[in-house]
Model the fold of this input.
Amino acid sequence: MKQDVTISFERFNHWNELSKNDQELVERANAVSKTAYAPYSKFHVGASLRLSNDEIVTGSNQENIAYPSGLCAERVALFYTGANFPDEQIETLCVVAEGDLLPVDKILSPCGACRQVMLETEVRQKKSYRIILVSQNGVTIVFNSAVDLLPLAFGITD
Ligand code: THU
Done:
């Protein structure tokens, strides 16, 4: 029996069409991407997330000469949140990237390991959160749940 899995997202031509709260997240992600330590890839990623107490947490990718020791921006922000705000729920996560790895009109699609962490974070907090992805020229897509980025995930969903 053939079955389909569908995911959905909303697309905007530019992030300035988002709500003021979401625009603030894009600005914070852009700002924190400047703190990326990325001497090897030269790819600067910024992540920002808004918590239910309205606090914004940010993170950037941090590389290391022993390559697998580095960490993506999303996981820096998500793990910081787990360590410092364990009782708050994430409402929205935003990811931006800057560098030659991606053409300016292409949206960074988070890596598989980040998707797994994004999904488990959602399951832990028992509430879905929105994910905003923005290209260098401003094109934006918004998902309503981490499940949309990792359907049929290992272990923790039906
Ligand atoms: N990177 C992220 O920070 N997030 C992603 O979703 C994909 C990749 C980082 C890891 C590495 O420092 C650089 O971008 C190039 O892969």
In short: The CA atoms of residues 104 and 136 lie 5 Å apart. The domain at 10-148 is CATH 3.40.140.10 (Cytidine Deaminase; domain 2). The mean pLDDT is 96.
